[in-house]
Amino acid sequence: MIGTLYFFALLGSTVAWGGAGLWSERNVRNETSGGSGDRCTCDAFLPSSTFPIRDLVVVEQTVGEISHKLDLEMGKLEDYEIKLTAYAEKIIQLTVEIEKMEKDPDAYNEAQMDEMKVEIKQVEALIKELQLSIRGSTTVFESLRVQITAIEVTLNRLEVTYDKNTVLLTRREYIKVQLQLEECERRHQELFNPNIGSCAHTGIIKVSKPIVSQLNAHLNSGYKFGGWGKDSKPVPDRESMYWYSGYTSGSIVDIRFYTNYKNLILRNHFQHHNLHSSWIGTGNNFIIRANTLYYQINSPFGLAKLNFTTMKYESRVIPGTSTKFSYTNSPNQNFDFAADETGLWVTYATEESSGRMIIAKINEPSFGVEEEWETSVYKPGVSNAFVVCGVLYAVRTVDIQTEEIFYKYDTKTKQESYLRVPFERFQDKYSNLDYNPTDQKLYMYNDGYYVNYHLWFNHTTKATVAPPLLLN
Which of 3, 11, 90, 312 lies in the 20 to 30 Å Cα band around 239? Predict the structure, then answer.
């Protein structure tokens, strides 16, 4: 395909493949030869703007290079898996031997103790070597993500400015490597972060670089309001489903569902629900949980839920809640729904709380408030918030490209504290930020783009077997 692209580049102009009306045929009387015959001529109508074919060639070459690197990384992951299994078996053996020694130390002589220390040191050396390899793979993934983000920006520019059909074949190849990277990262996470679903940690310690998936399904960065992500408590057969809802204003009028990540990227939805006129909502911090949309309504001002399995609609009013307090850069986000490992939450502020954020735990079947906690953080000073393992995390804007998780409130202990965990935005403003417990990622709707982040936690216990300590 690249050879074909260069051929068009040599012409100085490129026509849109499959485009209509670029060529016309006509028969002309051959009068120079006495009118005894006809000749066929073709007129080419080239577009007025030249398609930047070299940009597309560079993208294709980069996609090929990324695919090759990912093949190598997938091979490394398979090697890591084999080594981890062997190391775990060796650690279990050593642990059994150490327990025997501790129970009956007199039964072992000094030579046997020294031999055990040597074996432990050997395993520790192997683990350190593996850790270095793992860090190397993580660095490679981060580097490839940067390249893929740049490719996404280029393809979107070419699709919007020039011709979508011309870019289509290249985008399909791009989607393949994007899915390949997603699979590599998923395998990597399963091997080295098997704690998904666990709350045995003391909180967030790091946020990854922004992972840009796509410009929205409308292919329009003007759709600045909305959200996207995964169901935080998926019903059977919808575990891989994604959703998207975006608008040019703060209203919530419809939502699209995609069977998996690939179809999200291809903008190929399998369901598109338009909300009934009396169910239309507002604001941007809505979520999908158990195939149900939870969102804010203004008439009456309160909470709403719409179950897409039964199409049953419900609404609730929480007395005292105020329309005066929203996030810094997002009007009408008075209620902010969140979901974590422990259930469903909503945050808001009241006149009585003087604009300080209140956390409420929602009973999903009854759609009522079970318990409330008042924090000391002023909501208009917060750019967004989310909940992880019963802990509220508040975010604020630091500068034109940086956000910071700066505050947390633990509903279990009723303790609050300040922290500094910075992370990068892809575009200037965002309207939706939510945590999903099924993959421990943050999902952001950032000026029309689908963006997500990996999270790192300070785990207090490990799901894998830890190496034994050296004997004294």
Answer: 312
- 152-176: pLDDT as tens digits: 888 878 877 776 677 777 777 777 7
Site of tokens 């489903």? 241
Q: Report pLDDT for 14.
A: 34
Helices 53-103, 2-11: crossing angle, 10 deg rounding: 150
Contacts of 86 (CB under 8 A, 6+ apart): none
Structure confidence by residue, pLDDT tens digits, 45-85: 444 457 777 888 888 888 888 888 877 777 777 777 677 66
Q: Which domains does the chain have, with CATH numbers?
A: 58-185 (no CATH), 201-459 (2.120.10)
CB 291 within 8 A of CB 238: yes
Cα 470 to Cα 472: distance, rounded to the nearest angstrom: 6
The rounded distance, in Å, linking the Cα atoms of 122 and 426 is 44
* CA-wise closest residue to 438 among 296, 287, 266: 287
Q: Are strands 441-446 and 430-436 parallel, antiparallel or unpaired?
A: antiparallel
Q: What is the pLDDT of residue 51?
A: 73
In sequence order, the 6+-apart residues with CB closer than 8 A to the CB of 469 are none
Q: Which residue has the tokens 């009585």?
A: 352
Instruction: Decide if pLDDT at 31 tops 80.
Output: no
- Percent of the chain whose predicted confidence (pLDDT) is above 90: 44
Nearest CA among 63, 101, 269, 80 for reference residue 188:
80
Q: What is the pLDDT of residue 62?
A: 85
CB under 8 Å, gap of 24 or more: what pairs does 112-117 form?
113/471, 116/471, 117/470, 117/471
